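Appendix B. Chain record.
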Amino acid sequence: MEEFSSDELNPPSWMNDQFFKEVLRKCERTDKISIENIEISPATAKGDHFASIMFRAVVIFNSIQSKTQSKSMIIKIMPQEEGCKQDFLKESFAFETEIGMYSKTIPKLEEELRKVGDNTVLAAKALYWSLEPQKILILEDICLKGYKVLKDRMATMEESKIAFLKLAKWHAVSYKLSYEGDKNVTSYSENIFSKKDADTTPFMLTGIEYLREKLETIDEFKKFIPDLKNVQKDNLKKSIASAKSYRNESPKGIFVLNHGDFHVKNIMTKRNENGELEDVMLLDFQMSSYAPAILDFMYGIYMLCNPSICINNFDEVMYFYCSNFIDTLKQLKFEGEIPKISDFYIELYRHRHFALFLISSFMPLWYSILEKHVENMDVLLASDEERKKMYGNSNYLRDLKPILQSMFYRGYLE
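C-alpha cells predicted for this chain:
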C-alpha cells in the first residue's frame, strides 16, 4: 500500500508565498513578513484520516520582531479530486463546524475550566482559518511537542482513560453552558448522518443486512439472527433520530456538545523519554454536534478502545467517564440538577440502536483500515461486493462475538 494518499502528494497552486505571508501576518501579528523557504509534504500517512486533505508546511521566514525563524503548521483543505471525500464535504458544513469549534467553542470550554483551576488542553491551537475563496483550517503542528498518532492499533486502557477524561470534562462544561443558555454549544447540528441521503446511502443502510448474511453461515452466531432480522429495518432510522434528538419538540436525556467522531485516529498521544504516557490530544471536530452525551461514549468504546476493553471493562470505563463528568460539574459549581450514573445507563439503552449501527457498519470498516485491507475508499464505499468482504474478517468476527453477546443479554437487539 502507498505510504501517502495520492491527493496529498501535490499541494494546490494557490498554496504559495503570498498565501503563507497572509497566514503568518495573522499568526505573528505583523505585516512585515518575508518568506525565505517553504517545504510542503503530506501531513499524515495513508489511512490516518478520511475526509479532508492535510498537508504539513514548514515555512522559514523573517519578521520585524525577530530574526529568521521556522514555523511548522498542519493545513486542512477540501479534497481537490472528485470522489466520495469531496462529495461528502461539499454537502456538509464540516469546515464551518470545525472552524467554529477551533476558533470559538473549544477556547470557551478551556476558559471555563481555567476559571476553576483546571489547565486541561482539549485541542491543538488554531493558527488561521478561512471559508473564502478556499475552505482552510491551519493548526499548530503538535508533532513538534511529541504527539504521535496510534499506528495500526486501538487505544490501551491507559490511553483510553485519558481520552475519556478529556471527553468527560468537555461534555460537562458544555452541559453547564447550555444550561446557562449559551447558544454557542447548542447551535452545532452537523453529524455523521448529515449527508442528505444518509438514510439511503448503501454503506449506512446495509450494515446489519451484510452482517446478518455473514453470521447466518456461522453456527455460533445463529442465535442472534432472529433479533438482527427484527431490528434491521428500522435501526438506521432510529440511529439518525438519536443523533438529531435535540431538535425534537421535547428532547429527553443528557445533551452535550459531542465530539461526534470519537475514534482512535482522532487522538494523538504524547509519551516522555521513558515511554510513560503524558497526554492524549483530541483531534478533528468536523462532526461536532449538540446531541446525547452517550453517543460520544458509545463511539469511543467501540471505535477508540482496544476491543478487550469493550469486552472486559465496559462498565469500568463507563463509571470512569460518568464520575468525571459529575465531578467536573461539581468543580464548575453547576447550579442545576446533576445527572446520576444510573441516568447514563438509561441513556445507553434509549440510544442502543446507535451502538448496533457502529458495530455493524463502522467497526468492520475500521478493522479493514487498521489491517491495511483498504486500498481505495471510493471503491469500497461504492461496491457491495467489497463491503461484504469486510464482514469475513476473522479478527472482527472474533471480537464481535462477545460484544454481540453482551448486547443480546442487555436487550439491545430487541
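Further analysis of this model is presented in Appendix C.
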